Amino acid sequence: MFIVIAILAFGVLVGIHEFGHFVAAKSLGVKVNEFSIGMGPAIFKRQKGETLYALRCLPIGGYCAMEGEDEETDDPRCFTKQSSWKKIVILSAGSFMNFLLGLVLVLIIFSQAAGFNAPVISGFTENNPYESADGLQVGDEIYSVDGHRIYFTGNFNLYLSRGADTNYDIVVIRDGERVELDNFKLEPYEQEDGSMLYGLRFSVDPPTLGNVLKYSWYTTIDFVRQVWLALSDLVGGLVGLDDMAGVVGIVDMINDVGSETAESQGIGAALSDIAYLVAFIAVNLAVMNMLPIPALDGGRVLFVLINAIVHLVSRRRIPARYEGYVHTAGFVLLIGLMVVVMYNDISRLIT
Q1: Which 3 state secondary structure label does DSSP give 123?
Q2: Closest Cα partner for 59 from 14, 17, 89, 99?
Q3: Fewer CB atoms near the end CB (10 Å): N or C, the chain?
Q4: Nearest-angstrom CA–CA distance, 287 and 293
């Protein structure tokens, strides 16, 4: 059941992305030849005005086919004849819808929360070395660690663990004012029970409407940061292709999360955990799709900007066929990457 849910979730993620392009194109007067939910042979088709609406048998995505998107045409309402700002809005609308979907899912999940882990110190363990007039105090809100904004306690632990040493530049909010603790030494130490902790206790914010909205937004923004952290680790060599997961790996992950949670906490908790994971994937897709890489929407936006600069300087534009060549090459490379990642996913499942 959870494998089916995961496959349907991917269909929704791609479908909502294409729906964003569709709404933006229609709103800005661009001719849309076809809007399709799903891929493969059509189960249902209906021509309404200039647009063919189709429901196809494979629930793995969809597409929004705009006039002149991939070929030369003289239609004044084609995509290529639109102003630069309209093109950017249309190209960015898909990622915006993915981000919005992630935010809505988090809102729904957090509306059932019993409370939120706030980065506000509520107490210290006995003889804690970090509690002092020049250090941390009860009531301090951890605002940032080494320049990274702290939204909840999980952020605090994450950025402490990513530090190069045990000295941090910490900013706290104390009595409504920012207090900077530069080069503050903070490292785990052994507690009475033998565990290694920082000896800090944090408060829990009640699930008021304001806090639900605030922490839903914080969590969605934190998803974006996690994607950027993963990309920086990939570029920096801290992780490699073997650590990446593709569609097969993510479906397997969703199945594992759903099965384990359902067994221990029930089907409701399992669906909530899956929805949270899907929200993260939605935001992940939003960020990744806006990277300036050929064949992705971000790469196409980059070409729009380059074309605008070229036109401003020389009154000429880059021929559409050359841009098509670049995007085709980028598409082939992306497919190659997907094949490699899928091979790794399948190998992990087998071994």
Answers
A1: strand
A2: 14
A3: C
A4: 12
pLDDT of residue 191: 65
Token pair 């029930």 is found at: 266
What phi, psi does 169 have (nearest 5°)?
-95, 105
Per-residue pLDDT, 314: 86
Architecture of the domain spanning 116-205: Roll (2.30)
- Give the burial string for 211-250 (b: 16+ CB within 10 Å, else e): bbebbbebbbebbeeebeebeeeeeeeeeeeeeeebebbb
CB contact set of 306 (below 8 Å; sequence gap of 6+): 318
pLDDT of residue 194: 58
Phi, psi of 116 (to 5 degrees): -130, 135
pLDDT at residue 177, as a whole number: 92
* pLDDT for the residue 101: 95
Give the C-alpha separation, 153 to 181, whole Å.
Answer: 18
Instruction: Enumerate the active-site residues.
Output: 18
**pLDDT value at position 70?**
67
Instruction: Report residues of the chain scoring pLDDT below 50.
Output: none
Pairwise CA distance, residues 89 & 79, whole Å:
12
In single-letter form, the type of residue at position 120 comes to V
Contact at 8 Å (CB) between 141 and 200?
no
